[in-house]
Description:
By secondary structure, the protein is an alpha/beta fold. The protein has one domain: Vaccinia Virus protein VP39 (Rossmann fold, 3-Layer(aba) Sandwich). 38% of the residues lie in helices and 21% in strands. The chain is globular and about 45 Å long. The N terminus is likely disordered.
Amino acid sequence: MANAAPADLASLPAAYRAWRASDLGRITDRIEEELILTLTAPVAVKKVLDVGRGDGVLSVTLARQGANVTGVDVDRSMLEAARDRARGAHADATYIEGNARSLPFADGTFDVVVAITVLCFVPDAGSAVSEMARVLRPGGRLVIGELGRHSLWTAKRGAIYYPPCNLCARLLGPIDRHLAKVTTTGAAFIALAADKLADHS
């Protein structure tokens, strides 16, 4: 959330907790996470970078699957929330302060790089994607999940085909994966994966 005001950043951990306490948040996060884990798998013993990792839910899940996870974010309060989550889950993950447009890592450091609903907050998303590709090893995988442009969610938070309400999530969440096999039209969360070409020089 590179362009959020400092006052907004201070309230983010509480906002994430409130979101995850709702049916809408729990159902939506579960569907998003399943999609991302499908695109990243398998991660055991791989070096994974989680860019803009929020409060650490995804990075903790990846660490518990055996990945060597590093999370990076510009917001110190979110980094501390992620560290607390990792400690509470007995997950081994490292969190450092950094900007998606200038990642503090050497070229080719990671086997997998994930960025989930991050680029929509970065003023120059192209430079952030270039940085993610730079720190990815040849043959490594980049996974990006972002808000769908034409959905009922775009003014709120990214995910899924149902409207952003608890009842809709409970009723339509179970059929979401079937819709995803047919179309991305109307999806509020869209994910893609790309493998970096191996260096044949």
